[in-house]
Design a protein that fits this description.
The chain contains 16 helices and 2 strands. By secondary structure, the protein is an all-alpha fold. A two-stranded antiparallel sheet has the order 1-2. 39% of the residues are buried. Bound molecules: iron/sulfur cluster (SF4) (3 copies). One iron/sulfur cluster (SF4) binds next to loops.
Length: 339
């Protein structure tokens, strides 16, 4: 019922009456600022240009309008998690539909015309194995610079699956120390295997076998463990990119904060965090734990409005501006993210 109410928000006039110009402008500008240089420098990256030359601008305008609309849905949402889950999954569907069409229908749907495997771990492993091919790591770092850890809560085509797998249940308590240690051991393991395969001169078939086995085991972790535990075990322990994202995002200046003066210690928000970043100890400390991806789900879960985002200590409007940036990036990703 709650979900239905949120969907209704997308359709009713209440959205028009509650337009927040700031988030509207930020989201639309972000999409425009990212996609316009693409249109000028490499228009063929845009799908519309590939199939109907000269129509790239129309694709950009549609995505800018979408960004503006989504920013208003988000800012007015009573349950951010519900909307975020939907647009994140939408992104994943667009991504994998293009991938399937590229494979089976027309290679114009692929970014380069060459086949790459859609496994996030390869962002770390592939450049180590090849000693070249730094496009994805550069894209990841650029996205982290603009949106911080939102890579793992809004942009990654696989992370959306782990989110969905964990949705049905309330998160069970896990041993955070252990999961964080495993997560960083996974980075070491993946880099080591990539180095061994490289220096052993492993054939492409063997490399693809390892990559596919890693990816499929990840899907098993989502379907079994994340579903059972009600929290994103795949993303918080198994995927090496998640560990890199969390580590680098500590350089990003936005933080989640809890106002201890108004917090009633009800612990309701802890049941809304799928990243094990919000325990009762975190609440007492007034901030999120190590794994926080700034997803924002806890914000609308708090009846006392005690949770906010801060930027160098400032809290006013930070959540709204941050969310608008993420929405703008998401819309631009819809045009750019293809294999
Ligand atoms: S942890 Fe890995 S799979 Fe999960 S969202 Fe981040 S990059 Fe994607
Ligand atoms: S603490 Fe809040 S913002 Fe951070 S990951 Fe958990 S729910 Fe998301
Ligand atoms: S939901 Fe709000 S009031 Fe309750 S523990 Fe969390 S921050 Fe405090």
């Amino acid at each position: 019922m709650k979900q239905l109410n949120n969907i209704k928000q997308l359709n009713t006039g209440s959205l028009i009456n509650n337009i927040k110009p700031r988030s509207l402008i930020i989201s639309m500008s972000f999409t425009l600022l990212i996609l316009t240089p693409v249109l000028i420098v490499k228009p063929n990256i845009l799908l519309a240009e590939r199939f109907f030359p000269g129509t790239g601008l129309i694709e950009i305008i549609l995505l800018v309008i979408y960004a503006g609309w989504l920013s208003q849905v988000m800012i007015n949402a009573k349950n951010i998690s519900n909307i975020r889950t939907k647009y994140w999954f939408f992104f994943s569907v667009v991504f994998f539909t293009q991938f399937a069409l590229g494979l089976f229908v027309n290679d114009n749907f692929l970014m380069t015309g060459e086949l790459h495997l859609p496994i996030p771990a390869l962002i770390v492993a592939a450049p180590v194995y090849r000693g070249e091919g730094f496009f994805m790591p550069i894209l990841l770092i650029s996205t982290l610079a603009l949106g911080g850890p939102a890579w793992c809560s809004s942009f990654c085509y696989i992370g959306s699956w782990d989110n969905l797998a964990s949705l049905k249940r309330r998160p069970k308590k896990v041993n955070r120390k252990q999961t964080i240690i495993i997560r960083y051991l996974m980075i070491v393991l993946v880099v080591l295997v990539a180095l061994i395969l490289r220096y052993a001169g492993a054939s492409l078939t063997v490399v693809i076998f390892f990559a596919l086995a890693f990816g499929l085991f990840g899907v098993f972790i989502m379907l079994y463990f994340s579903r059972k535990l009600g929290y994103m075990l795949h993303c918080t322990t198994y995927c090496p990119v998640g560990g890199v994202v969390t580590l680098l995002s500590k350089l990003y200046p936005v933080r989640m904060k809890i106002d201890l003066d108004t917090c009633t210690s009800c612990n309701i928000c802890t049941t809304h965090c799928k990243y094990d970043a919000l325990s009762s100890d975190d609440i007492k400390s007034g901030k999120a734990g190590w794994n926080c991806t700034l997803c924002g789900d806890c914000i609308t879960s708090c009846h006392a409005s005690s949770i906010s985002f801060s930027f160098f200590g400032m809290k006013k409007d930070v959540w709204e501006i941050y969310m608008a940036i993420i929405v703008g990036l998401h819309a631009a990703f819809l045009a750019l993210a293809r294999l």
